Amino acid sequence: MIRHSLNALYGGCAALAALAMIALLVAVLLSITGRQLGFNVPGIDSYAGFLLAASGFLSLAHTLKRGEHIRVTLLLNALHAKPKRGLELWTLVAGVLLSGLFAFYAAKLAWQSNEFNDVSTGNDATPLWIPQLSMALGAAVLLIAMLDELVLELRGKRVLPLSEEATRNE
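Above: the chain sequence. Below: its structure as tokens.
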């Protein structure tokens, strides 16, 4: 039940990231069309940037769980089982700590932007806590995914999905 819920959380954030990417495409096309036809959509460039950041942050956990984050496997492949597991545990603990700090400060930034009524510098004056929520949510879900990976590794049930990128290299 918990595994199903976690996978649904990772998949839901990936779906939100995909929607943000589609909205980014629409925003860019609207901006280009507006320039060609002589009309302006206020703040469209800012919204495109917000959507780009949202798509990146919301996809972090899903990317981690699919094994698509950059991993330096040269050293890991040279190690035997016990040192290899020790290095995996060390990197997962470091990842949990760093993603925890990232999630904390991303949430703090969004909270402070709301408290101080911080707005974007564009002519639309968007309250910054709104786009910062996607960063905070993405960082929090990344923390959950890192904790998930650490628990799986400690229990000996972690399976590293191999990226298909290695099979496409020539």
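The chain has one domain: 2-162.
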